[in-house]
Amino acid sequence: MGHHSCCNQQKVKRGLWSPEEDEKLIRYITTHGYGCWSEVPEKAGLQRCGKSCRLRWINYLRPDIRRGRFTPEEEKLIISLHGVVGNRWAHIASHLPGRTDNEIKNYWNSWIKKKIRKSSSSAPNLSTPTIDHHHPQLINYSSINQLDNYFTNQENVTTKETLFSSTCPLFMFDTSSLHETTATDTNVIRPEVLFHHDSVSLSSDTWNLNHHDHHQHHQVQTLPPHPAAIAFTTIHDTSNYNLPPLIENNVENSMVPIDQVQSCNMDEEGGELLTLESLQLQRQEELNEWVETQQQCPSFIFSWESVEGQIGGEEQVLVPNSSHMGTPNSLSPFPSSLL
DNA sequence: AAATTTAACAACCGCTTACGA
DNA sequence: ATCGTAAGCGGTTGTTAAATT
Fold this sequence. Notes:
By secondary structure, this protein is α+β, with helices and mostly antiparallel strands. It is 39% helix and 12% strand.
């Protein structure tokens, strides 16, 4: 019954790690690397279960860990990401090099307490996000916007700035987790950030969308970096639907060009009745026009709706639901235009 | 002394593999 | 061989004891 199968040691030590134990673990891992945690305790001479060793290494002993207080940038990133993905700490941590999920979780939990206390007294009309306790990871959109506004006001940033103005991250969202909610529940959406990185590292090819117009292309290239977003929405009943391979395999350092994204989606089964080419052309023209008038790089949000059983029998039909193009400021950090 | 923060475990989850009917 | 399922494992998140301030 209450038997720990992971611990086949005679006496399994628990609780805080002693410096001696730390040293043993460090010595073992640094010389042998880590592969199978369950055999670490034995080989390293530790009276611990493998899981405990793993946690100790991951959260505390590994050399590339970042300590000390969170920078304001990190804090903003955490807040924004939490707004997007909720309590998925590991996911959030993956965007903060050297920080552990545990640390971020702890930070959030102590931070949110503080903010709740503060906001109840000093900012009565700007509430913290309302969390659905049946689905704790899901957060109401309007709350996010409130939170967003709250920080924008709080930190006195100009309207030109975004929460990400310092690092210019690039986001790609996947809102396919929608299927976790009911079909009618439109106000709880939890997009997943698929990847993000500094737009500084973007190649000019990323914005090479105007194949037909080299003049425009040149303009685009010379404009400064800024945050960008691409979002996908796939709506429930998509049990057979898989994310396009391009996204899943992705491809840490390259942004998926929009045309590829589209064809990617369309190449999946059932996309047959889309006039993709015409849409593409239409977008291209919109884009050219927009760039010309705005004189800056656009950001994009695409969302896709999956409509079932309409025409193709049981076949799933993917329909481009909406696409929105705007200034970085109007789109980032959170794709509220998906509302 | 109380409140906050940290570091650990418990519980759970999804994936893979081993096993067995 | 094949399917179902149990076991094992790495990984993630909720919770809380202990340390710290």
